[in-house]
Specification:
By secondary structure, this protein is an alpha+beta fold. It has one domain: Conserved Hypothetical Protein Mth637, Chain: A (2-Layer Sandwich), CATH 3.30.1200.10. The protein is about 25% helix and about 40% strand. The chain is built from two helices and six strands, in the order E-E-E-E-H-E-E-H. Strands 1, 2, 3, 4, 5 and 6 form a six-stranded mixed β-sheet that branches. The longest helix has 14 residues. It is globular.
Amino acid sequence: MPFLSDTPAGAILNLRLVPRAAKNAIAGPYGEALKIRLCAPPVDGAANAALIKFLSDTLRLPRARIQILSGQTSRSKRVLLAGVNARDIRPQIDA
């Protein structure tokens, strides 16, 4: 999975977001990123907040352990999942 890597701090996900989608869902690989569809609009941080909630629910992680490292105002983002490794979250992404 080119969009998922391990670091000493935790796993890093490279994401490509599609805001204003019909429903929140993982859409699958998109080049070197994982495409995620979100209902939220890209206004005033709504999509970033929706992304953190979606990842928290999908990956069963507390929101405090999910941090957007880069791409705050972009559709392309790098997200740190603190304290977990890539092997542990692969099953939830593939499902």
